[in-house]
Structures are given as C-alpha cells and as structure tokens.
Amino acid sequence: MRRRLLALICVTGSLVSACGMLPGGHERKTVTVWLMKDSASKDFLKRFTEDFERTHEDLRLDIRIQEWTGIVDKVRGALKGGAENGPDVIEVGNTQVPLYADGGRLADLTLESMRDWGKEKWLPGLAQPGKDGNKQYGVPWYAANRVVIYRKDLFEQAGITGTPKTRAQWLADTEKLNSGDTQGIYLAGQDWYTLSGFIWDEGGDLARQKDLEWRGTLDSPEALRGMEFYKSLQALGRGPVDADEEHPPQAGVFAGGKIAQIVAVPGLAQTIVRQNPELKGKLGFFPVPGKSAGRPGTVFTGGSDLVVPQNTDDQFAATSVVAALTGAKWDTDLARTMNYVPNKTTLASAVDSEEGVAAMAAGAAHGRATPNSPQWADVEADNPIKGYMTRVLGGADPATEARRASRKITEALTPNVG
Question: Which first-to-last residue range defines the signal peptide (predicted)?
C-alpha cells in the first residue's frame, strides 16, 4: 500500500476527498472536480486521487459526482458564477463543449494541448468538438462508439468464414444472412447516428459552416449516397422504419429472435446475454466497415472531454488535474477499467485484449462528432433527420425529403437574435 503524505484524512460529502496540512503548516490548495456518474469506478477514483496527491504535494482533490439529468443548466450556472465553491475542472459530453464555450466562459487550453499533451494524436471525434476556431477548450478523456455485434453461429451457418472489411462485402454478407426466419441485420429506420457515419464516409455532412453561418447539407450528393447505402442495408432485416434503436430497445429484439447483426456499442452484448443466456459465447464484434478494406468506416464518437472554467481561481492547479487524468498512465487505466477507448490513437493497443473494445478503438480512429455548433442541441430536440429517414425508407423521393430536412436543420442552427 502506498504511504500517504497526509497525516490527516477527512471524509467529506464528495465521493473522494482528502484534506490536510503540508509540512511546515502550509495548507493544501483544493481543486474541485465535477465528474459524471458512472464515468469512472470508485476504485479508479480512489487510486487516482492517492497518486495525484502523492505527486502534487500542494494540492488536494475534491471529486464531486454529477447526474446527467439537468447537468447543462447546472454547468451553465457554475460557469456564470464566482470561483468560490465552484468547480475547477468539469467533465462534459464531447458534443456539449460548443454549448459551454459559447460566450467565452471556458479557459483556452490550446498552448498546453500543443506543447504538453500531444493533441495531434487525439481521437478526432473528441478533439474536434472541443475546438472553437483555433482554440482548444475541451481536452479528450475517453470515447465510445458503435461497432457491429454479430452472431458467430449464424455467420457460420451461412458459410461466412470471416467478418467483412468493406461496405460492399458487408452488404453481400448481410444479404446472404437474410434468409428464411433469420434477419440479416436489425437496423431501425431512425438510427441517425449510424446514418451519419455513412454520410461522412461519402464525404458529406449533416451540416456545414460557411462565412460563420450554418446550413443543413443532407441534400448534397455525398449525403444522399450515404442515405442510399443505409436504405439498402436496412432493407435486409425487419427493423421498423418509423422508430429509432431504442423503441423498442434493440438489445431485447436481438436477444429474442434470429438476428445476425446489430450496430451498437459493444457493452450492449452483456445486456443481450442477460436476456438470452443461450447466446453466451456466440457473439462477436467487428468495426463498421468502410468503403475500402484498409480503413474502417467513419462512426459517431461519443465520450467525454474535460474543461476548465474561465472563472477558476487557479488555472494552473486545474490544468494539472486535466494533465494527469488525460495523460497516458491514467487514461489507459480508465480505458481498461471501464472498457472505453483511450483518448489517443497511439494508446489503442491498451484495449487489444477485449474484442469489443478493440473493434471500437479501430472505428474511433476515424470517428466524428455532430456539427460543432452551440445550437446543435436544438436540432436534436425535434430531430428532422429522423423524419427524413422514415419518409425515404417508406418510398418518398430522397432529394426532395433531404432538401426539406436540410432547411429545418438550417433554421435550428440559426440563432434567434430577436
């Protein structure tokens, strides 16, 4: 057991906290850290805190666990308030960074990112939404993204000896699997995250910014090709065209029927096996295939960044915590502990031993995030992409429906300044 440098340990209302005096009677500086519920285990936080306080004798950590429900308003309030009793470091969803950076309320961490933290190796799906222009506000912490979960036994019965490496092969294999009472794939009609990957692979996007103005771009030729592939794949199963992957939850559908594949985060396999223990040992994983064999498909990357409020009273102390949490030692420790993807492509080998996480890491290397606009949450609030997908899968003209959905995206991304 490591020897603690503190003579006194005191437990507060936070999950992990220690307080004490330095030799000579000098009090440690407290750094308050807000982390989200279930992002890290209690054991990880205990080990990290002990190590950090041992190597930073002038600092102590006060880690406070937050609920996702209502977090946006709580963070906004903290960013507007004074430094006293406020957080010095905050974990935020990677796509939320633009929301909080708007108005200049986050500390600019560009220098540290370039000089000390190796930002050129960060996962793009975490790093890009953490930027505003040339300034880096969000520092990547961990990632998770979708892979293909498949039935090994159904692949074998269909005579498929390996997993597909290209979208063309994936489509051909899925068509072969879609026979009799077996669905080649269960893909809900409104799974817009999966569609986004196909659009990005074609060189398109959901929306793009030009001259500081955002406009929806589902009607571009590239985006329409992505929708065309989605339609071809979705037709090789019986997924509902008017619902997303949570209605009904696809884990239950997969567990209850003869379905060869779904697109989901690998952790969903545990839920599937709990609901149908007969599938234990029969599930495998592979990255969403790309257009060519040498590059997995582009996928939406979820996960978290760490930010430092502009109103912290000690930015140096705050960035010390960010540096430690996102550095190779503790970032790989977190990835192994929680089955995440580490924040850098160079750290992917740390999760090679877990098939599902390794597949996830391969996709994350080419991951993307939603458009980097503070108003993107308004798009998702009444998501026109879902309605667009349902209408196209129901037989409507793709170009017409894409123009209609793009106009709605543009309207949602246009700030109301009146």
Answer: 1-18
| Torsion of the alpha carbons at 225, 227, 231 and 234, rounded to the nearest 10 | 120
Q: Are 28 and 59 in contact (CB under 8 A)?
A: yes
- The span from the CA of 106 to the CA of 119, in Å, is 18
Q: Is 25 helix (H, G, I), strand (E, B) or coil?
A: coil
223-274 tens-digit pLDDT: 999 999 999 999 999 999 999 999 999 999 999 989 999 999 999 999 999 9
Cα 191 vs. chain centroid, distance in angstroms? Answer: 15
Domains of the chain, first to last: 16-144+301-364 (3.40.190.10), 147-180+247-287 (no CATH), 188-236+375-418 (no CATH)
Contact 293, 77 (CB under 8 A): no
d(CA 89, CA 96): 15
Bridge partners (DSSP) listed for residue 342: 142
Distance between CA 34 and CA 56 in Å, rounded? 19
Of the candidates 65, 73, 71, the one whose C-alpha atom is nearest the C-alpha of residue 49 is: 65
Q: What is the mean pLDDT of the chain?
A: 92
Cβ-based neighbours of 182, under 8 Å, separated by 6 or more? 154, 258, 259, 260
What SS3 string covers 185-252?
CCCCCCCHHHHHHHHHHCCCCCEEEECCEEEECCCCHHHHHHHHHHHHHHCCCCCCCCCCCECCEHHH
pTM score: 0.90
> Which residue is associated with the tokens 């406070």?
64
Query: Which amino acid is located at 349 in the chain?
Result: S
Residues 334, 198, 135: CA angle, nearest 5 degrees: 55
